[in-house]
Write a structure and sequence with these properties.
Length: 166
C-alpha cells in the first residue's frame, strides 16, 4: 500500500467514498474510483485503506497493483500463500484459494477485509478475479476507465475530478 503523499489534501470525494462504503444497509460493497490520470484516485484509495487499518475496521487488507492480469493473479497468489497456506508454485490455484478464503464460512469467525485493485487498465484483466460480495468485505478499484464491465453487480462508479487550486 502506498504511503499518503505529503501534499495529500482531504476532499469531498473522500467523504463520498466513506459514505458509499459505510452507508448502513444500503452500502455498495465495491467502489470504482474513476477519473483522468493524476487526479488522485490512488491517494484517495490509500487514504481510505490507511484509515480503515488505523480504525480497526478491517482485519485483512490486500493492495493489488492491478495494471495487468498477471499482476492481479500474483498479488492474489501471495495473499493465498500467506492466508491459506496455498502452494506458492501454483499462482493460479493460490489466487483461487485466496478468493475462496474471502467468502464467509458458517461457523468460522468472520473476517472483515478490504481488497484494493489499483490502476485497473483493462477490465478484462479482472474478469473472474473480482472479490466476492459479502457483508464483511469491501473492494475498492482505481481506474481511468468507465466501462460497463466495471459497474453493475453491486459496484458503484465514483467520479474523481481534478482539484484545481488557484
Amino acid at each position: 500500500m502506498p504511503p499518503l503523499a505529503e501534499c495529500f489534501q482531504y476532499r469531498a470525494e473522500a467523504d463520498r467514498l466513506r459514505t458509499a462504503v459505510h452507508g448502513g444497509g444500503t452500502a455498495v460493497l465495491s467502489q470504482v474510483l474513476t477519473g483522468m490520470g493524476g487526479v488522485g484516485k490512488t491517494q484517495l484509495a490509500a487514504d481510505y485503506a490507511h484509515t480503515a487499518r488505523r480504525d480497526g475496521t478491517v482485519d485483512v487488507l490486500v493492495w493489488v497493483s492491478a495494471a495487468t492480469r498477471s499482476a492481479v493473479v500474483n498479488a492474489y497468489a501471495q495473499a493465498g500463500v500467506e492466508l491459506c497456506r496455498a502452494d506458492p508454485h501454483d499462482p493460479d490455484r493460490a489466487a483461487i484459494s485466496f478468493l475462496a478464503w474471502l467468502e464467509p464460512k458458517p461457523g468460522k469467525r468472520p473476517c472483515r477485509w478490504l481488497v484494493v485493485l489499483d490502476d485497473v487498465d483493462d477490465p478484462a484483466d479482472v474478469r473472474g478475479l473480482w472479490p466476492p460480495d459479502g457483508h464483511l468485505g469491501r473492494t475498492l478499484v482505481t481506474t481511468r476507465r468507465r466501462d460497463a464491465a466495471l459497474t453493475g453487480a453491486g459496484r458503484r462508479l465514483v467520479e474523481v475530478a481534478s482539484c484545481l487550486v488557484l
